Amino acid sequence: MLEQIKLAIENLDNLSKTKPIKVISHNDTDGITSASIFSRALQRWNKRFSIEIVKNLEKDYIKELPEDCILIFLDLGSGSLPELAEKKTEVFILDHHELASREIPKNITMINPQLYGKENISGAGICYLFAKQLSSGNYDLATLATIGMVGDQMEKELTKTYQEILQDADVTIKKGLLLYPATRPIDKVLEYSSSLYIPGITGSFAGTIALLRDAGLQKTQHGYKSLAEFTEEEMSNLITAIMLRKIHKSPEDAEKMVGNLYLIKFFNKLEDAREISALINACSRMDSPEIALSFCLGNKESRKKAEKIYLNYKQNIAAALRYINEMEKIEGKNYTIINAQDKIKDTIIGTTASIMSHSPLYPEGTIIIAMAYNQDKIKVSARLVGKKGRNVREVLTKATVPLKGEVGGHPGAAGCLISKEHEQTFTQTLQSILEVDLVKI
Ligand SMILES: [Mn+2]
Q1: Cα 152 from Cα 378, distance rounded (Å)
Q2: Quick one: CATH architecture of 2-168?
Q3: Distance from the CA of 275 to the center of ligand 1, in angstroms?
Q4: Distance from the alpha carbon of residue 22 to the mean position of ligand 1, in angstroms
Q5: Under CATH, what is the fold of the domain 329-435?
Q6: CA–CA separation, 277 vs 95, rounded Å?
Q7: Is the pLDDT of residue 441 over 50?
Q8: Three-state helix/strand/coil letters over 254-285
Q9: Contact (CB, 8 A) for 391 and 416
Q10: Would strands 413-419 and 406-409 be described as parallel, antiparallel, or unpaired?
């Protein structure tokens, strides 16, 4: 892949002498960190460019893209090769998603780890390798690549490339409870965090203090320590105390609560990469990806704005969950359909569905389908509670075949967009599919 990167740099250098560059990136954390790494690298390379962050690459959008500039796609594009082949300009793709075909059209330079073996590297990781190849002065961008890695949940097994990236970024890795931010006092994180729901503890001051007492953790004169400051023994005592509460649905669930914490230096402060990733995602979902981008590039004003948006986002999620609690739902034996219409933003409906699927209210195997308006379309998110149950991607696919919706995702979490005029038909079809209890494992 390094050879392909070198070639891309050479080609881009030549082409950019006569044509401006237009960068298009995805709106999640990986896409936004990709865009910030790439734009910083271009700036240091003295290239002229513009940048745009998009939710997804729709066919009509590609058609309308200008042909008098070089088009560069980050963290997306691999699935749109036939449409991009039609463009009468040079296209570069730095992406890790599935390729629409193994044959790369002539006008496209493709950098995608899927072409080179098993190692998966996120968009930001690929952009960092590109930047590092371009100049050794770009080492500082490794921190952003670390945030992108965490954003795309690729931190579970560290491949060789990632070990190098983490080293370049001077990241501190610590094994511990996957509760973020690991940099804040543990009592506050346990009580207020939405990253790990612990019944009786999350949202309860008394429950939190009781748990910390069980774990033998004491307040210091500055208050409770943070996970980042814990000794190995303190960490293990806390994990044991939580495990004894038996909140996990399965041993795998319990295992998922423990892993590597990634502590990075950002704005000259020690930060939890997961927290920064969540903040970037929140800005994007609250329709401010440009603030997230400028925050990633180190702008102090944007940092303040981003923090405000993050707070507002968390309040939005809380309000969405409250709304769902009170609204009328379509409920069956193994499923719940929530049609929030315009009461919940389409950009947070997926997160809301995920939080619900982790809540103790729903037994394993329940399918949660949440819907919200997105202009003239409806965004649909489906989640399976636990591991055992029906393939929700298949369920959605079945329900959308006659409606020409595009389904994406996995067996446990999937989503699609359908046209608003099909709202009624879709919920009815969905209900009849869900009523037929096919699953017998
Ligand atoms: Mn990605």
Answers
A1: 25
A2: Alpha-Beta Complex (3.90)
A3: 17
A4: 19
A5: Diaminopimelate Epimerase; Chain A, domain 1 (3.10.310)
A6: 19
A7: no
A8: HHCCEEEEEEEEECCEEEEHHHHHHHHHHHHH
A9: no
A10: antiparallel
Give dist(CA 340, CA 344) in Å, integer: 6
Per mean pLDDT, which range of 33-42, 226-235, 399-408, 411-420 is the poorest?
A: 399-408
Query: From ligand 1's centre to the CA of 123, what distance in Å?
Result: 5
Q: How far is the CA of 405 from the centre of ligand 1 (A)?
A: 22
Ligand 1 centroid–CA 30 distance in Å is 5
Q: Which amino acid is at 118?
A: K
Q: How far is the CA of 118 from the centre of ligand 1 (A)?
A: 16
Cα-to-centroid distance, 75 and ligand 1 (Å)? 5
User: Could you tell me which residues come within 8 angstroms of residue 299 by beta carbon, excluding any fewer than 6 positions away?
Assistant: none
List of residues 6+ apart from 163 with CB closer than 8 A = none
Q: Are 360 and 388 in contact (CB under 8 A)?
A: no
* pLDDT bucket at 437, cuts 50 / 70 / 90: low
Q: Is the dihedral of CA 256, 307, 360, 344 positive or negative?
A: negative
- The residues, ordered by sequence, that sit 6+ positions from 82 with a Cβ below 8 Å of its Cβ are 100, 101, 105
> Among all chains, which residue has been given the structure tokens 């309308």?
64
pTM greater than the 0.70 cutoff: yes
Q: 400 with 416: CB under 8 angstroms?
A: yes
Residue 391 near residue 406 (C-beta atoms within 8 A): no
Query: How far, in Å, is the centroid of ligand 1 from the Cα of 128?
Result: 13
What does the domain layout of the chain look like in residue ranges? 2-168, 172-317, 329-435
Q: Which of 348, 346, 344, 350 is nearest to 392 (CA)?
A: 350
- Centre of ligand 1 to C-alpha 289, Å, is 15
Q: How far is the CA of 145 from the centre of ligand 1 (A)?
A: 11
Q: Which tens digits make up the pLDDT trace of 123-149?
A: 999 999 999 999 999 999 999 999 999
β-strands 91-94, 70-74: how paired? Answer: parallel
Best CA proximity match to 74, nearest among 104, 100, 51: 51
